[in-house]
Amino acid sequence: MTTTAPPRPAAAPQPPARPSLGARAWGLWLRWWRRLTAMRTAIILLFLLALAAIPGSLLPQRSLNQNAVRQYFADHPTLAPVLDRLYAFDVFSSPWFAAVYLLLFVSLIGCVVPRLGEHVRALRAAPPPAPRRLQRLPDSAELATPLPGPAALDVVEEELRVRRFRVVRRSGAEPTPPGPAASGDELSAEKGFWKETGNLLFHLSLVALLLGLAGGKLWGYEGSILVTEGQGFCNSFQQYDTHSSGALVDGSDLTPLCIDLEDFRAEYEEDLTAASYTADIRYGGPGEEGEATTIGVNDPLRVDGDRVYVTGHGYAPRFTVTLPDGTAFTDVSAPFLPSDQTTMSSEGALKLPDLGAGVEDQLALEGFFAPTGLMQGGVLTSIDPRPLNPEVAILAYQGYLGLDSGLPQSVYSLDRSQIERGRLSEVGRANLAVGETLTLPDGTAVTFTGVDQFAALQFSHDPGQVWVLGAAIALLVGLLALLLLRRERFFARVGPAPDGGGTVLSVGSLTRGGGESATSFAELTGRLQAALDERAPTPSAPPSGGAAPEPEVPPRDR
Amino acid sequence: MTVDPSLAELSDTLFSIAVALYSVAVVAFSAQLAFGRRPARQLVSAGGGAPAEAPAPPARTDRWGLAGLAVTAVGAVVHAGVLVTRGMAADRLPWGNMYEFATAVVLVGVVVYLLLAVRVPAVRDIGAFVLAPVVIALVATGLFLYTETGPLVAALRSSWLAVHVSTAILGFGIFFVSGIASVLYLLRLRSDARGAEAEGSFLSRLPNAVTLDRVAHRTAVFGFPIWTFAVIAGAIWAESAWGRYWGWDPKETWAFIAWVVYAGYLHARTTAGWRGRPAAWVNVVGLGVMVFNLLYVNMVSTGLHSYGGLD
Ligand code: HEM
């Protein structure tokens, strides 16, 4: 990169008096700006970016796994808070990570925008004049022809134009307007603007990609929910088990969409590897009948830029509770969370806080669910993820659940503190197969009636996503052009042949990128010689001189 | 879907044969280096025009080199057979776990080396230095990463597996050769710096520094867009499989780090003050990051990508 310096105001030539504060500040700013947009700085910033990402992969991150972070705090009680203050658990949203990539992008913009202007100018400007000594160029040769100088250059120009070079003819240092009519003793040609175009497209796509990413973070949101077969949810933050949203998301105007889960299937290989999850759902606006479709792993529902995914599944055991007075609560269920993905043994709790008027005690069942149960030494375990022989091991509690105590509690377990305080006490326990009943001391009967499947669904809204995809494609196209194309400059000058008859054409070329240049140069000069010979009244001597070894890419300045 | 045990067994046998053939190739290439007589030392001008490659070495050593190449080529065919039979045994693409991934990466490295050796004769001389790491990598893969042939977990059953993982393997394999070329370039520079004292050592028989540097750069230039594409394809797949195109999962993070390091290498290669030695180090670090990503992220950390197949 030898010509990238942004147009700089000429430095004041030795100011007589102290420069004004403004001028000094401007000078300082310029100096820093140049330093920031220098290639060397870009390399350093790239490494800083790579380094800055490392802690994000070695330490647990809140954005990925809250539990792992909590575990880390438990394991390292003194270190963790210190790390936390350094944003070590939120690396990718930390100010220092942002500082690195913002600096890099400022550097990139400062580096690329001047090049953009230069490139546009270069597209319109004529190729530069031929260097004085063509034989010093990395590739050069001499072609002899009996044609007079201008006619020989006409031939060369024609051949180059066919090869999509832009050609200009000059006499000496005086530029003349391009065109076959013009004559001159010198020719400059250039092609390969796509390489630089690719370079600019690539770097600017990086900026576009970052903007798309940022936009998606600011205006995007995500919600997760467990939905049991036969139930559904509508897109609102109140309904989700967990959700996260960007700073500019207004929770009140989310896409109005409701999803009902009609059926869920998990299929397994013989070795019990999960082969596929499929969910039959119905989706539509609130109150609408909705459209039916099937979604699964790798196959989300896509509506209007929003997406609904199946991210997991599990079982919700079903119970019928019959109170001593005969009141029955039929087929109440709660999702039990899988604690082991290979056997789908699950744990959870079913809470019945309101058993009707006159019943003061609340009831809860807590325990273990095995889709295919097996008793081993008096302990229930699961040996298969499929519901071949569902069994539960439950503890029944009566008393006060503490749901309205004001403290949030997990829906998957009971509030231990109520048990410790004696407000909730165990009143029975049993291992039940489907159809079996546990009768509590007060006469309440709890029957295990079966099992439903639930699906873990995720609703995602990311308005930046399409933009990011477009930027990624542009980036790749630009990169291919940048790396694979070559920029080529070709020069020719006529001189008298040493023996007086005809002309010797000195030609030379300067190539950047795209591999070996010597062979393609030899090929081009061969064609030129052939074309010259064709036009010549008499045959001429073969080309002399030869292709020099390929040059290294000249180092960029700065 | 059942696994065909006899094909799976054949795959394992071919693996051993490939390792054996590559070991023979290392011996042949070493013999080439040991018995080869280097023509007069060439001076390497710093950054200037490349001196022409030395004329072909005497025929006897060339024969060792050609034998090494031939054995390597046969080894590569057998090596490809490892993956083909595994794929047939499980009736799927043979890159669903770490063992298969690493085996495929090494194969790409060998093939890239062979292609280079055919096109750039000087590159034949680095055979021992490519094949020795190949043998080490394969033995380590066989010992530590071996996994029984088996079906894929649900998230991997997507046509994006073919696109994303194939390009990742391709990019990794190319970077593997590129990284070795940079290591050899650095060694060669050291040997050059020691001058006459290093005369006759293995290292002085390497291709000259300019050639090694150029091989490293060309291969990295080839690998970079492929790796870029692999990362983009991974993001597209993640969008449909995991609900977001990018989530800084450890594997994603290290893929990003590797990408940034290689971008740094390409920049460094053309920036005054960074060319030569520092740039080569960046390329070596890049390869280190790729290997770390394969081993550490699959074996130690937990993330969505850790279905490497190790129990
Ligand atoms: C987000 C960070 C960046 C990435 C990932 C990146 C990546 C790349 C890549 C892969 C190349 C191709 C190298 C080659 O020609 O072999 C390149 C070239 C280049 N980059 Fe960057 N770059 C970044 C930032 C910058 C910055 C900040 C600058 C300015 C200081 C810059 C200036 C250039 C220039 C001038 C080229 C030259 C292409 C040529 O004509 O050979 N880049 N960049």
From TrEMBL, chain A:
The keyword Membrane applies. InterPro entries: Cyt_c_bgen_Ccs1/CcsB/ResB, ResB-like_domain. The keyword Ion transport does not apply. It is a multi-pass membrane protein. Residues 528-558 are annotated as: Disordered. The chain crosses the membrane at residues 41-59, 96-116, 200-221, 466-485. GO terms for biological process: cytochrome complex assembly. GO terms for cellular component: membrane. Pfam families: ResB (PF05140). It is found in: Membrane. Keywords: Cytochrome c-type biogenesis, Membrane, Transmembrane, Transmembrane helix. Residues 39-513 form the ResB-like domain. This is Cytochrome c biogenesis protein.
UniProtKB/TrEMBL annotation, chain B:
Residues 95-305 form the Cytochrome c assembly protein domain. Keywords: Cytochrome c-type biogenesis, Membrane, Transmembrane, Transmembrane helix. GO terms for biological process: cytochrome complex assembly. It is found in: Membrane. GO terms for molecular function: heme binding. The chain crosses the membrane at residues 14-35, 64-84, 96-116, 128-147, 159-187, 220-238, 253-268, 280-299. One of its GO terms (cellular component) is plasma membrane. InterPro entries: Cyt_c_assembly, Cyt_c_biogenesis_CcsA, Cyt_c_biogenesis_CcsA/CcmC. It is a multi-pass membrane protein. Its main location: membrane. This is Cytochrome c-type biogenesis protein CcsB.
